[in-house]
């Protein structure tokens, strides 16, 4: 229906009778040779998807000699597939890859392991949903990364940190007996976009999850996820040996602590044989960690890694650390803390780095740490939930941000310097909850979708992802698809303009991070105060990170840093990240910094109005329920874009003593 529950897996009957009949003829049976639970879910998904899309259930084998259909299986599984492979070389597909081909009127789906069949099925269904011609099908797909993981910041009490779509979908109270159908549909949705891991608990962790009764609950979730190729991970609170184990210390070098983690790992694997591993936030924002015992992050991570290694598990150690250093620069801290440890981690430790050096801002330069840990496997962490980008109310197509980051080239004079080349996987902080449509704001679904698709294929352009999602979500009407795509493409630059143009950052109101608060300067820690990040005075604004300032710019590879060094050539979108400049500073387009700031805020407001017009034009093409839902959210966004503009300009104008620039609607 129109309630959004089915996400992009909305397999509605194909309306166009000609297209439907063509697909019916070409896909009249599904000849499946599968054995394991994952292969079985692949076949089940294919059968039900086809039945819904084509209005008739496929047969299990050709009805007549000349009927056409789908053969699906591993290389040796059926004579039809073997026959094809005799004349067509198909490279090694790995554990998750697949090959799709049309062959003498049939469609063949081949994999080396059954998980590949699952991904191939979802690709095939997507192809039909988006009206692809199957007669020339010929593609081999393998995921770019082994690790494609959702991170839920879900607490055991059902609340979700930075969650804007209701409560946690994990009902710990009723597990392990009660298996909500949502768990299954969650796994299907994740698998359909290539996600193969999920961390079901918050990085601000609770050691209770390691208690036997909670492990039994977690095991029940893992059982649901397994047939969809999804591994379960848990967050590990570093002080668990004390809180749960009753030990006097959590010092990672203490023999009893080492033994505690070993036996806890063994206990977990006895229940969850394919357990993924631990995700750890240590010595950050009040979380316990090895530094309390004078040990390094590597010493801490390695003890957990050694406990998991015999079972094949990994430790994902987060690089998001910063302390309250007088005169310090939070931008620098992860780099300063972790680069000396490169090479000191066990093989099964991965370092998870947020895309930017501060914290999921609307636009950040990339974290310098990506290029500085050559001996450590890295995961890139994105927020799918929009903590700093309007949370549950604003429509912002995150694929634009993700693709900008993945494509950022840290080695401009060499091949392969893009961020996507430095990493082994991606983690995305989930935006889902108990809202009927999962994400609260319908367009939030596009961000979950984009994260998954990019974790599989990080070179996909945002435009392709937007178009796909628009078709899958709203159907094939080309006007709708084009308009929704345009709306999504406009939305990200709009948000940056009305919140943080020209490189302003961390100026959201404190705590909840919703709405403007650049004037806030009374918190105990400097680096929590929005004011600290721009330091506006009567004369100037911005954060100097050059050699004359915090020197953070020097953490980047030199050729990459070069573009930011000179304020007259620095890309304007990053200007105030690196420079402190007079309000009168002239930008390349001739405007003063102050004028440009004002005009950017105004542009953001105007862009949201354009988004509203685009959406309004679809009134008779999108069902009433979803049309109203989106219009109402856009109305909030329009009001709040004005709020951002008015509040920020009123404040900066008061500080600088400059009048609101011409061309900007003045605050009331
Ligand atoms: O973005 C900040 C959030 C915290 C979060 C932290 C982190 C889970 O404001 O809520 O804590 O980052 O990533 O650890």
TrEMBL record:
Protein name: Xylan alpha-1,2-glucuronidase
Record text on subunit structure and interactions: Homodimer.
Recorded superkingdom: Bacteria
Keywords for this protein: Carbohydrate metabolism, Glycosidase, Hydrolase, Polysaccharide degradation, Xylan degradation
Domain Glycosyl hydrolase family 67 C-terminal as annotated: residue spans: 439-664
Catalytic reaction(s) noted: Hydrolysis of (1->2)-alpha-D-(4-O-methyl)glucuronosyl links in the main chain of hardwood xylans
Domain (Alpha glucuronidase N-terminal) ranges: 7-124
One GO cellular component term: extracellular region
Family matches, as InterPro entries: A-glucoronidase_C_sf, GH, Glyco_hydro_67_aGlcAse, Glyco_hydro_67_aGlcAse_N, Glyco_hydro_67_C, Glyco_hydro_67_cat, Hex-like_dom2
Catalytic residues (UniProt): 285, 359, 387
Family: Belongs to the glycosyl hydrolase 67 family.
A Pfam family: Glyco_hydro_67M
Domain Glycosyl hydrolase family 67 catalytic as annotated: residue spans: 128-438
EC number: 3.2.1.131
BP GO annotations: xylan catabolic process
Signal peptide residues on this chain, from the entry's feature table: none
GO terms, molecular function: alpha-glucuronidase activity; xylan alpha-1,2-glucuronosidase activity
